[in-house]
Amino acid sequence: MQTATPSGDDYAMLAAVAREYRDVHLVALKKLAHYNPHLGVDALCFQRLTSDEGEALLVGALITPCSLWLVALWPDEHADAAADEYLLALPSGSYRLHRHAFGIRTWYQRRILDDLSELGSMQEAARLAQQLMTRLFEPPAPPSDDEA
Asked: Could you tell me if 140 and 93 are in contact, meaning their C-beta atoms sit under 8 angstroms apart?
């Protein structure tokens, strides 16, 4: 797997996806007990991955006023996006993501944190997303002598 910074077109598409997600889901999110009015919806910390098979994929975090999600989507709508699950292989391990379709875009997602009510700003949420993505893109540490 190779990683690269997303292109300008990728960033524009991710911003559009975040806006569409907000427009579709915000009313329902506001009804949840752990809704945080200090947070919005944003797609953050994305990397463009190229699999060993040459397939391009965008992987990053989606912040909502309630949750932090790990998200994977293809830069262009992809034929395999009809599958209910996608196994995402990252340096830290493999993660089973579930299909989420709305509007014209389909992606795969996995909830990482379900309650962001203690965060006071989008800046705090962005730092949390950055920490998450850093950990996911690092291989696991080898066991120490104490653990072996």
From this structure: yes
Please report which confidence band the pLDDT of residue 99 belongs to, taking 50, 70 and 90 as the band edges: very high
Report the number of distinct structural domains present in the chain: 1
Place of tokens 């509007």: 103
The CATH number for 94's domain is 3.30.1460.40
Question: Confidence class of residue 36 from pLDDT cuts 50, 70 and 90?
Answer: very high
Give residue 34's domain range. Answer: 2-136
What's the rounded Cα separation, in Å, for the pair 63 and 66? 8
Is the Cβ–Cβ distance between 95 and 124 less than 8 Å? no
User: Which is nearest to 3 in space by CA: 45, 51, 44, 43?
Assistant: 51
Q: State the pLDDT at residue 77.
A: 64
End-to-end CA distance of the chain: 29
Residues 6+ apart with CB under 8 A from 109: 62, 69, 70, 71, 72, 97, 98, 100
For residue 39, the model assigns a pLDDT of 97
What proportions of the chain, in percent to the nearest 5, are helix, strand and coil? 30, 35, 35
Higher pLDDT, 107 or 68: 68
